[in-house]
Structures are given as C-alpha cells and as structure tokens.
Amino acid sequence: MKNFTLITLIFLTVSGSIFAQQEKGIIGANNWLENWTEFKPNQSDYREPNKILTGNISEDITLNKRDTYIIMGSVFVTNNATLTIEPGTVIIGDSDSKASLTITKGATIMADGLETDPIVFTSNKSVKRAGDWGGIMILGDGPLNKFGNGSVASFHSDLNPSNYAHTSYGGDNLEGCSGVMRYVRIEYAGKRIKGAGYLNGLLLAGVGKHTIFDNVMISYAAGDAVEVWGGEVVLDKIVSYRTNSNDFKFNYGAQCELTNSLSVRSPYISSSEGSRCLMVLSYDEISEVDFTKKGTSVHAKNITMLNDSEDVQADIEKGLVKEAIFVAQNASLNMSKSVISGFNPAVLLAETININQENLDKLKFSNMYFNNCNGNIFVENNTNNEDLENWYGNAAFYNVYSKSHNAETFIDIRNERRPDFRLRINKIIASHDVEND
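^ that's the sequence the OP posted. Answer follows.
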C-alpha cells in the first residue's frame, strides 16, 4: 500500500509538472507540428505543374492530388462557386504574372487537408524567396468599422475591369462561411505590387465566423503572414515562420480569437513596413472609421512568440530586434497563457493611448510568460514603464518573468525536421517578480 501511495504521488507530481509546462504557450500532449509542417520548404521538390488555373472560376471545381496546378495571374473564384482541394494537392504560384487566388464574396474554398497529407501553396521559382507570388485572399460579407465596404482592387496589377465587382468585401453578415482551410501550407507569398505594397500570405477581409482556419502554416511571406480586416474569425493552430512583415495583423474592427498558435521570427528577416508577431489596430486613417461600430478586438490564448536569435542582446544592440506586440489606439487585446521570448520590448502600446483604467481594461495580459525580453510592456516613445510594469506585475495577473536562452526554454527548437516549440518541462526558473530593464 505504501509503495502504491508513493507511486501515485510521483505520478501526480510528474502529471502536475507536465500540466504546468503545457499551460503556457502552444499546448498539446503531443507535438502538433509534426507531419504536416515544413521548416525548410526550399528543400521540398514538387512535380512540374500539368494544369493551369487562370481567370475566373465560376463553377464548382475540384483540384485533385494526382495533378499539380499553377496559378497564372489573378484567379477569382466567383458566382458562389466552391473550390475544393483534395488533401496532398500542390498548387504553385507563378512569379512573373504575380499570381494570386481570391475567394470572392459568396464563394467557398474547401481546402481540407490531412495531417499526413497537407495541401501546399508554393512558389514556381527554382531558388525560392519571400514574395515570389501573391498569396490567398478570402473576401466575405462580415462587418467592418469603416464607412461603406472595402476593396482589394489595388492588389491586382492585371485586374480586368470586369473583375472590379469581385474585389469588394464587407457587409452585415456575422454568420458567414467561406469554407475550410485545414492542414494547409502557404510558402513564399507576399508579392510586392506597385502602389499597393506587399500582398499577404493569407488575407481575410470581412470573413464570417463559421469559416474554419485550423492547422495553417505560412512561411517566408514578404508581407504579413495573416492579416484580418473586419469580420469575425477563429484562428487555431496557425504557424507563422520567418515572415518579413507582421505575423498576425488585425484591423478595421476585426473580432477574432487566436489560439494555440506559433510565431517564429528571425532578427535578420524584417520589413520597413512592420515586423512584429502581433499587431492590433482599429484603422489606418481615423477619417475612414465609423466609431458607432465595434473597434478591433482580439482574444489571444496559448500563443508562443519567439525571436530565434543566438544572441538576443547583441541583436538588440544592432537594431535587429523590435517589440513582439504592438497595440494601437481604440483597439482591444486580451492575451493569456502565452509566451513571449526574446524581444525589445515584449509589448509596445501606441503613444496615443492614455494609461487609465478604461484603457487598461481593454489591454489585458494574464498568466503570461515573459522570457529574455529587454523590458516587458512600454508606451511608445516613453522609456519609463514603471507604472505599467507594476500594474501587470501584480500577483493577481499571474504573469511570470525569466531570463533563459531559447534552447533552455523550449523542448527542441534546433531540430530541423521536427522542432518542438512547447515549453520545456522542469527547466524553467521563473518568478512573479517584474524585471525592469
């Protein structure tokens, strides 16, 4: 009986340690990154394309795994058609024609891959680089906080005038469904368009809450990995890897949940237009906003944000590392059980945000793990963050602070084939004491 009790106690202790390890950052009893992700996509060898996608897709169509497709120019799925993509299908974006795929309002994409057979969108270049092709845009009829609806016409350099109607997004439908994206990889997207800046790996504009985004990896995007304008979406198990610009950007009244997701940044890959893990805005220009409508609100839980730097302090001194999170005025962020490791600082609030109770209620950070950051929460252009550190360092928020190298913090981030970015068990020495830098 005593032996049984001892074994039980040991089991409970180990189980408790595992639970503590799993509760912050990306979670899962197993490493959910295995099988379907690819952290060295330039080494992947795909078959030559044997079918072309071009112009408008106005009838239901299925892309088959046995074929390899190439997107030429701006391809629109229109007329309430459904584009179905079989697991394991490879779709290649043509660089010279600035290829992109747009799912228009009322149309649907059913890209439902498998963990062992993901769907892949990638570049047609022999030497692949960020921004080789355009990316994917999904347009819905969900609400925005802008006056009127929006358009992505400027992102299509070769736009036929007959397609202008297909570039609009926005409306009043909270219940919209634009389909499914599950076990999908998007590689080397974000082509630069003259006068419009960079496209994104995945742009969601006015997308409704019944659309499913689950296990999607965007790697080496030149623009933002995922950008959300308005609408109401849930993003689960989303991976942004070595993106030039922002990993996750929310704007124009987006109402979003971001859960169990990963952002891995490199100090040597960044864009002058922004290079943060998470950016939360309610508008770009205040004149375009209808303040009777909801501002952007993001709930983020179990997120891991990692700056993959061998020497964080040296890279900070060189100006290569910025903040992980930026929150602008009139936007809300509720973040919990997440890890921010190796940034300068962890969070930056816009200087136009007044630090008062009303705004602090919109900016919540609880059960967080701040590791090896050069400061934790600051107001832009203000080097004195003592009040914010004292507020968020209050024991009631259960935030912890540490100074550990990435290799000691995460289970196995140097495994090139199957990295594991979950927190390492029993290797973290953390405290509730705020570390002022």
